[in-house]
Design a protein that fits this description.
The complex is a heterotrimer of chains A (475), B (205) and C (273). Chain A is of the alpha/beta class and 475 residues long. Among the domains of chain A are: 252 residues, 3-Layer(aba) Sandwich (Rossmann fold), CATH 3.40.50.10420; 72 residues, no CATH class. Helices cover 52% and strands 10% of the residues of chain A. Chain B has 205 residues and is α/β, with parallel strands linked by helices. Chain B has 5 helices and 12 strands. In chain B, a hairpin with a 7-residue loop joins strand 10 and strand 11. With 273 residues, chain C is an alpha/beta fold. Chain C has 2 domains: 144 residues, no CATH class; 120 residues, Rossmann fold. Chain C is built from 13 helices and 8 strands. In chain C, helix 12 links the parallel strand 7 and strand 8. Classes of the chains: A alpha/beta (475), B alpha/beta (205), C alpha/beta (273). Chains in contact: A-B, A-C, B-C. Chains A and B meet through helix 2, helix 3, helix 4, strand 1 and helix 8 of A and helix 1, helix 5, strand 9 and strand 10 of B. Strand 9 of chain A pairs antiparallel with strand 9 of chain B.
Chain lengths: 475, 205, 273
């Protein structure tokens, strides 16, 4: 392994893909900045308060989870708990089996990506159709999403048109409007045939037990208008204390993710349909999913559980923009993924411990995060963890620091190195077998060595203030 | 239901939180925090709503006659109407229209428009609020190309905060802000993905 | 800064990542300790010289603790906190006393008042590390906010592009330096595209992710070249070493300076030094 895996992936990325990812994420970031700052006097205060609210929830889940459960039950919702991905999938399957249901339409939910629900159900003989346009295209392509809110940010219209043609959705036509109309016609039949609609939830209010779902396409609304049973798979950290907190978070979510004031559909669901309503679920299930979250809660990176999955950190991240989401080899790409994915991997942490290295620690992700997660600090903690757990993935191409630390804590050795370093100017760089130097000079020149020059000047120049000629300074 | 998973999760949560010397407090925040710069307290809510609805490509209309004219201009003559609303609207619709008061899910594409009642609106965002209580059919408000939500002045909230803190006692409340849309393909905005491609707010007093 | 310190003393997770700078205590007197940085020690002697000259012009007496080496950041960022703590402990010992420590680098300053606190969270000597952090200043922040010097004399005829290095995010350094540079007669600070984006250096990142690092740098250089400045100026020689190295390798005509050099040369141009 020569360089870090993500760097190698980025180096091999097609120019076209890189351009799609770069343009798409930059557009999202620009729109975010514009709406937030146009609309609010002090958007940073909104982020800070929202972050405090979510941190409070995370640190009080022992109180909020039973509270949410009780509210949901009182609202007529059947509540399930799933400690693992397998348990969550099994819970869905047993609901389907109990209803003798064979077809499911599903809206976009990140937790179902974690559990790979669609694949699981297909294996069990259940048709599970992704209804978000991007996710639908991912599904027919057998691909993976590469962005939290824009799953096909890495694809262009020509690739989409080709796969539509291949899957019997009309002759090749790469007009985005035609693509969308064809998906509309195809998917509305799927909604109407399905027995069960599955969604996630962006928030649950502990006060009222309302689930909040946001979409632009209206696909989750269609799932809940056409089917008779609603299953919501929800991560245990999605809680907000009060209904009024929903207003604050909703003001931030769409603006941060896509630069919209509000998404087109914001649904507040607190149970099965009203008795007089002809359409929609008569039965509603909520599956509260852990799948590694309690491990994160026990770690010193629990702040990441504040995340509301808006994608703003992906959009602003210069590494994500160059590498694309697939480089992260996991459900969550970008800065949030670099923290969350290795943590959720449990025992397989060392395999993903290189993800936290994929950052210059520039801090842009923290600056845009609607819940003010200190992502760079968390990345740093995970780098330390990767080192302590001797992850090979994390160690790749990272210069060893032990010898340097010895030298940098011995002034005599340091001064010797400053003088001795001059040799670097006299040897051809390609013959110096230091991988870091090779990596540096492969792309850049190295400035001339001036080791010790400043110290000489400082010592020999006329003292501007002789009173300062302390033994320490003249030594 | 898996009670062991419940106990396992809750005990892990308690175990994870036990070492914390103190827990983060719940901050209180003043409503002004989320007031938009452009907030105008004394504004006519309907006027502001119209302006904002247009920004999200929705269409505000006043009176049944203007709705009929607009539908005719676009050649949309087949649709659905909430049975409770129809008696009030029927007189404005000429015989060239076919309007049904039950929505047949077996032929959703036969309806070019659906007329249902809104439960409210949010002026600052151009949002229509639909509820199970007010909407005669969820599908009729979603599947046809055009959705017309009938609204009264008194139902309009000025801002999101006011709307979210006075949610109706209804198990299904939907805030609709403009027509259904996507930007999944190359970031290009396309309206009318799964839901309506035209969202109309019809003021009817 | 104070808030962070108090929280971490209670054993609580430090959760403010915005790099808040300094407690409200202002430096007493003008005796300062210079942390020259390892990069200036090895490559950029003139930047350290300029820093001394600028501080002395302002009436400071500059002490240079000879035992200094590095702030510990390379190992900290690389994940080797055991190695990094060793170096930080040395730095804490070297910069004993209570004089402000001034650093011509936003990144080394942030290492002292933010990064080191993270890696010492569970260490017994956290208070000593915090104490050094509290009196460490990035040069521009020290001049503008510490000494209260709001405009800079002299003359410097140039159109400059200012690269706000990322470690100054959330600190007072960026605005301070832009204000100082902007106040120099003859000097214009010109904006360029995507100015908020990172240059791609990132410490060990630059050698572990050479492709992404260079692509980010090229993007930055493209934006800078598009506005055709006379000079590219920053508060961090690490960013400059990366950008200048790329520019030279690719044959781009971009000249780089540290802002301390610009301040010093502005004085020289007007005969003030």
């Amino acid at each position: 392994m020569k360089f870090q895996q993500i760097d190698q992936f980025a180096a091999g990325l097609r120019k076209e893909t890189r351009a799609s990812v770069y343009d798409g994420s930059k557009k999202g970031y620009d729109a975010r900045t514009k709406t937030l700052f146009d609309h609010f006097e002090d958007p940073d205060r909104l982020r800070r308060v929202a972050g405090e609210i979510k941190q409070h929830v995370v640190e009080n889940l022992d109180t909020y989870l039973p509270q949410v459960e009780a509210k949901l039950r009182a609202n007529g919702v059947i509540v399930h708990w799933a400690a693992t991905a397998e348990a969550a999938n099994q819970a869905v399957l047993s609901i389907m089996r109990a209803r003798n249901a064979k077809k499911m339409v599903k809206a976009k939910t990140m937790v179902s990506e974690e559990t790979e629900l669609a694949h699981f159900l297909e294996k069990e003989g259940i048709e599970c159709v992704e209804t978000d346009l991007g996710e639908f295209i991912i599904q027919i392509d057998g691909d993976h999403p590469s962005h939290i809110v824009k799953p096909i940010i890495h694809k262009n219209r020509r690739e989409i048109a080709t796969s539509f043609e291949k899957h019997g959705l009309g002759a090749y036509n790469d007009d985005p409007q035609t693509i969308t109309r064809r998906a509309r016609a195809h998917l509305r039949n799927k909604y109407l045939e399905a027995d069960v609609g599955l969604t996630g939830a962006n928030f649950i209010s502990a006060e009222s037990g309302r689930l909040v779902l946001v979409t632009n396409e209206g696909n989750s609304r269609f799932c809940l208008a056409a089917t008779k049973c609603h299953i919501a798979m929800v991560g245990i950290e999605k809680i907000l204390p009060r209904d009024r907190d929903l207003a604050l978070l909703l003001n931030l979510l769409a603006r941060s993710g896509t630069g919209q004031q509000l998404t087109v559909y914001t649904e507040f669901i607190s149970g099965p349909k009203s008795p007089a309503q002809p359409d929609g679920p008569e039965e509603m299930h909520v599956i509260l999913v852990d799948n590694g979250r309690t491990d994160v809660l026990a770690s010193d990176c629990r702040d990441i559980l504040r995340c509301i999955r808006c994608g703003a950190c992906l959009n602003v991240c210069p590494v994500y923009r160059q590498a694309s989401g697939h480089a992260y080899r996991s459900v969550y790409p970008g800065p949030v993924g670099a923290v969350l994915s290795p943590l959720l991997a449990g025992k397989k942490f060392p395999e993903l411990a290189d993800l936290p290295k994929a950052s210059t620690l520039c801090g842009a992700c923290n600056e845009v995060c609607p819940v003010n997660i200190p992502i760079p600090d968390l990345l740093l903690r995970l780098r330390n963890k990767g080192k302590l757990e001797k992850s090979e993935a994390a160690a790749a191409a990272t210069p060893p620091m032990g010898g340097w630390a010895v030298m940098a804590s011995q002034p005599a050795a340091w001064k010797f190195a400053l003088i001795g370093g001059k040799i670097i100017d006299h040897l051809p760089h390609k013959f110096i077998p230091v991988p870091a130097l090779q990596a540096w000079t492969g792309k850049r020149t190295l400035p001339d060595w001036k080791g010790g020059e400043f110290r000489k000047w400082m010592k020999n120049r006329p003292r501007p203030n002789p009173a300062l000629d302390t033994p320490e300074n003249t030594r | 239901m898996n009670t062991t998973d419940r106990e396992a999760i809750l005990s892990r949560v308690r175990g994870a939180l036990a070492p914390l010397p103190r827990r983060a407090p719940l901050p209180d925040w003043e409503t002004e925090l989320i007031h938009m710069r452009t907030r105008r307290g004394d504004v006519d809510a309907w006027a502001l709503f119209q302006e904002r609805l247009r920004l999200v490509n929705g269409l505000p209309l006043e009176g049944a006659a203007s709705l009929v004219t607009w539908l005719e201009q676009n050649g949309w003559t087949r649709g659905y109407c909430d049975p409770e609303l129809w008696p009030r609207l029927q007189a404005a619709f000429p015989a060239t229209f076919t309007v049904e008061t039950t929505f047949d899910r077996g032929r959703v594409d036969d309806y070019q428009f659906g007329i249902t009642r809104a439960a409210g609106a949010v002026a600052e965002t151009g949002t229509l609020i639909l509820t199970d209580g007010a909407t005669s059919s969820r599908l009729a408000a979603l599947a046809p190309w055009v959705h017309i939500a009938v609204l009264q002045r008194a139902q309009i909230h000025v801002d999101l905060q006011s709307a979210v803190t006075s949610l109706a006692d209804d198990s299904n409340i939907v805030f609709c802000t403009g027509p259904s849309k996507t930007a999944d393909v190359e970031g290009i905005l396309i309206e009318g993905v799964h839901g309506p491609g035209q969202q109309v707010a019809l003021l009817l007093e | 800064m104070f808030g962070i310190a108090l929280w971490s003393l209670t054993g609580r997770v430090v959760r403010i990542s915005v790099m808040l700078n300094h407690d409200p205590l202002r430096p007493s007197g003008k005796r300062v300790q210079l942390m020259a940085t390892c990069l200036c020690d090895a490559f950029y002697d003139d930047v350290a010289r300029a820093t001394v000259e600028v501080l002395e012009y302002l009436g400071c007496t500059v002490e240079f603790p000879e035992g200094q080496t590095c702030c510990g950041q390379p190992a900290f960022n690389g994940g080797d906190w055991v190695a990094s703590r060793k170096v930080v402990r040395h730095t804490v010992k070297t910069f004993a006393g209570d004089a402000p420590v001034v650093v011509p680098s936003g990144s080394c300053a942030a290492m002292m008042f933010h990064g080191a606190l993270l890696e010492f969270e569970k260490e017994n000597d956290l208070p000593e590390v915090e104490a050094l952090g509290r009196r460490t200043w990035e040069l521009g922040d020290y001049i503008f906010n510490g000494l209260g010097v709001k405009t800079w004399p002299g003359r410097y005829d140039a159109k400059i592009a200012f690269h706000r290095s990322c470690h100054s995010r959330g600190t007072n350094s960026g605005p301070a330096i832009v204000a100082l540079l902007g106040s120099i007669e003859g000097l214009t600070v010109i904006p360029f595209g995507e100015g908020e984006q990172c240059c791609g250096f990132g410490g060990t990142f630059s050698v572990a992710f050479p492709h992404v690092s260079a692509s980010m740098g090229d993007l930055k250089l493209d934006h800078i070249q598009a506005v055709n400045p006379d000079l590219l100026v920053s508060l961090d020689m690490s960013c400059m070493m990366h950008l200048a190295g790329l520019a030279e390798k690719e044959g781009r005509p971009i000249k780089t300076r540290h802002f301390a050099q610009v301040l010093r040369d502005s004085l020289k141009n007007a005969g003030l030094l």
